[in-house]
Amino acid sequence: MMLAAALAVAPRVAMAGTPPPQVFADFGGIAPDRGVYDQAIDRGADFLVAPVVPAKDGSLIVAPDPELSAYTDVARRPEFGDRRRDATIDGAPVSGWFCEDFTLAELKSLVTGPPAKSGGRTAPPSLFSLQDVIDIARAGCVRQARVVGVSPRLVHPTYFAAQELNLEPRLADIVRLGGYDSPAAAMIAQAWEPASLKALAALSGIRRIQLVEAEGGPADPTALRYAAMIQADGLKAVSGWARAVAPTEPLLIQPAARGAIQSTGLAAAAHAAGLLVYARAIPPVARARLTALFLAGADGVMCVDAGLANRARGEAMEKLRPAV
User: Fold this and answer.
1) Is the pLDDT of residue 9 over 90?
2) DSSP 284
3) In whole angstroms, how far apart are CA 282 and each of 88, 251, 253, 285, 297?
4) Is the predicted pLDDT of residue 260 greater than 50, yes or no?
5) 309 found inside a domain
């Protein structure tokens, strides 16, 4: 598959002294277990994406959505049957079991998948806290003798703020206590909501990423729509509350004639606005597309398959290596 068009915007990546692009292990709508995170580290992940929601007491749990039944066994647990209810999340009606109605211990008791071998015994995977992911990353640093960071993703912060379960101060506390309260630390927060990133900026020195979709906009109707965020003026505005943007893959690369892949130019425009670019790969991932994302100027790629993204990064860097 041809990648020539992507190469047209790649010189920034190949500049001497520029750090190599990074790989974020991002598992989307599933609740990854410890083994999945450990495997991602061993396959080259630089950051572990951890979507966070609050327990009843405000503890941050790693889970992709406030409603639990899509990724846990809560619907099959008779002791929790009476907690099923209706809610409205960012304007959408939802029925089910919600994280904020459960204690931390109850959430950790929920099973998220089939049993897996752990330490010689078979144990069912379960939900765990953001602190657990930080501990996994730190253990991975020791095991792999390199830096492994964590990237908390704030899930539906507007919904939780309405219940006085604001995610930002709780994350800021963890950042401070863990020694990550610095732009140089191995932790990068991400969110779809600009208001959430602005609130976090007032509480912490942690780096921040604005997530961007192909259409629509944040839950806050007064916020910039995503289409506006990727225009020149919008990118300049985003640089006021975030250090980076994380657009979905089609916003950065597109199919071209005869099987080629071409850059949209968004990465170059974001760089011109002073923003880093972390691409969000669309499953099912393919190495040619991942390579094209790096060649198009992505400073990192968020991908379900860290090993494949790591190989694509190596291929892209080899293509960009100056001839001697």
Assistant:
1) no
2) S
3) 27, 11, 11, 6, 17
4) yes
5) yes
